[in-house]
Amino acid sequence: MLNALVAALLAVLPLAGPGTIYATDDPFTSERTQWFRDARFGMFIHFGGYSQLEGEYQRSDGSTCQDAEWIMNKCRIPTAEYERLVKSFNPAQFSAKAVVDTARAAGQKYIVITSKHHDGYAMWPTKVNKWSLRDHSAFDRNRDVLAELKAEADRQGIKFGLYYSTWDWHDPDARSAQNFARYKARMRAQLVELIDGYDPALLWFDGDWDTDNPPNPWTKQDGAELESFLRAKDPDLLINNRISKRAPGVKERRVVDGDFGTPEQTFPSAPIDGQLWESCMTIPSKWGYAKWDKNFKSATTLTRNLVDIASRSGNYLLNVGPDKFGRIPAPESDRLRAMGSWLARHGDAVHGSSVASWVADPAWGAVTRKDDKLYLSVYDWSNSLHLKVLEPFDVTSARVLGSSQHVAVVKAGDGYDVKPVGAKTNDVATVIELTVRGEQAAPPGTGEGLRAQYFPTNNWTGTPTTRTDPSLNFAWRFDGDNFSVRWTGFVQPRFSDTYTFLTVSDDIAKVWVDGKLVVDASQAHQVRVDKGTIALQAGKKHAIRVDYAERTGEAHLKLLWSSANQNQQVVPEEQLYTN
Ligand code: FHN
Predict the structure, then answer these.
(1) What region holds the PA14 domain (predicted)?
(2) Is the CB of 148 under 6 A from ligand 1?
(3) What does 196-249 look like in DSSP terms, one character per residue?
(4) 31-349 CATH pick, 3.20.20.80, 3.30.230.10, 1.20.1250.20, 3.40.630.30
(5) How far is the CA of 55 from the centre of ligand 1 (A)?
(6) Is 280 in the pocket of ligand 1 (CB under 6 A)?
(7) pLDDT at 23
(8) With a cut of 70, which residues of the chain have pLDDT below it?
C-alpha cells in the first residue's frame, strides 16, 4: 500500500525544479551556472578572528604553538582565552577596493570570503550571537567588511560568494547531538542574514567530515534539507558539495551534493565525471595568515596550475589570507598580479575555455578549447610540439599570441606537429592559437524526453504509472524506498562520435543503447558513477532503455553523455524521443 502510494506520489510530483531537494537543473549547461563555468579563476579569502593571532600562540609555559585558521583547535586554546585574544582584532586597513582591485588585476572573476570559519566567528554583524567582528573586536562598529566587499565586487563586476563552516568550535550546541537542532536553527538564521544582507552568488560550505574533536553531528540529511531550503530562498545560488556530510572514514565527496566538487590543494588529471568542479589551493601552505608561512608557490606554478585546471574544465579558487590589519600580504598580491599580467595577453586560453577532447593531454603543456579555437599553452618550448589527435579536425590557421612568428602545422603520425619558428614569448607559457574546423553538429533535436514507467516495486513488476520525463536528472534523495523506473525511447546524437554514457545512481542502474548494455550498475550500491561507450551516428535515433531501481536509503539517477565533440552534460530533452 505504502509502495503504491510512493509510486503514485512520484508520478504526480512536479518535475525536478529549484526549491525542492530534487535536482534543480543541469549545472553543466544551465544559465544559473554559466558565469561560474566561464570564470575559471576566483579568489578565496580566509579572514577571521584567527588572523589576529598571526599564526602563533604563546602558551603560559613559554612554549610557542603555530597554526593559522586552525590555531584555536590545534593549539588547544581554551575558548575564553581565544575570545580574549580575538577581542583586540582590528583590521582597520581592510580595503574592499584594494582586494577587488587585486582580484581584477589577477584576472579573477569571483571572490569567496569566509563569513564564518570553524572557530564560529562571524565576519558580519550577525544578530544571532555576539561572537562577531562587530561585537567582539576592536574594529569600527560601523564598518561591515562583507558589505564593503560585496558593494565593491558589484561595482567592478566581480561575482561575490560566501564561505560558511557548518562545523563550529565555539557554539556549545554545535557539538551536542541533543542540542544540535538549536544550533541548526541558529545556522539557518545566519544563512538567511547572509542571503538577505549580501545576496551572494555562491555559498561555499565546509566542515563536512566526521570528527570527535569537537564532535560534528551534521548529517547528509541535514545537508539535503539545508540545500533544499537555500534553493527555495534563492534558486540562482551555486552551492558546493561540502554542504553534505561524509560518513566516518570516507575521504571522497559525492557528485550528487551541491553544484560542484571541491578538490583541495590538488586537482584531477581529467574532468570530473558527473559534476562541475573547482580546486581550491593556497599560495603558501596555510589558508589563514601566519607570519612564519613563507613557502610561496611561484607565479609560474600558479599560472600553469590555472591552465591545467581549465584544460580539465575546472575552476581554480586561489586563496589569500589577509593579515591582522586586513591587508593581503604582498607576496600573495604580487603573485596574483603576475598571473594577471600573463592572463591579460593569454586570457582566451583560460576564461570561457574548457577541455579539448579532440586531442590527448600533451607532456609539453596543456590544451584548452573555446569555440573554434584550440589554445596550446606551451610550458616546455624546447620540446618538439606534437598533438596526438583523438578526433579528426582541420587546422585552418595558427599563430602565437603576442608574436608575429610563423607557425607551421603539419600532419605527422597520430596527429599534428606544431612548429613555431621563433622564440617563446614568456617563461610561463607561450600560447599557440589554432583555428580549427571539426565535424559540423547536426541541428538540435526536437525531442520531448523518454517514456517513463514508475513501478511500485524495486524490480520492475506490478502496475506502473507512466509519464514522459524530459531528461533523467533525479535526486529523490530520502523520498521513497522500493520503487523502480524503466525509461524507453530513442536518443539522437548531434555528432557521429563514440559517446560515453554515464550514470550517477543509487541503488541500481542499467543503460542499453541499440540493444547493447552500455552501463551495468546492477549490484545495489550507494551513490556511484558508472559509464560505458558506444558509437552513435549524428541525427539518427538510437533505441535507448534505462532501468533504475531504488531499494532503501537515498535515491539518485542521472543520465549524462559526452564525446570528443560533446562536453559532458545531462542528455538533454531535445535529443530524447518517446518514439
Ligand atoms: O579546515 C578547512 C581549512 O581551514 C580551509 O578552510 C579549507 C579550504 O578548503 N577547508 C577545510 C579543510 O578541508
Answers:
(1) 445-575
(2) no
(3) HHH--SEEEEE--S--BTTB----HHHHHHHHHHHHHH-TT-EEBGGGS-PPTT
(4) 3.20.20.80
(5) 15
(6) yes
(7) 63
(8) 1-23
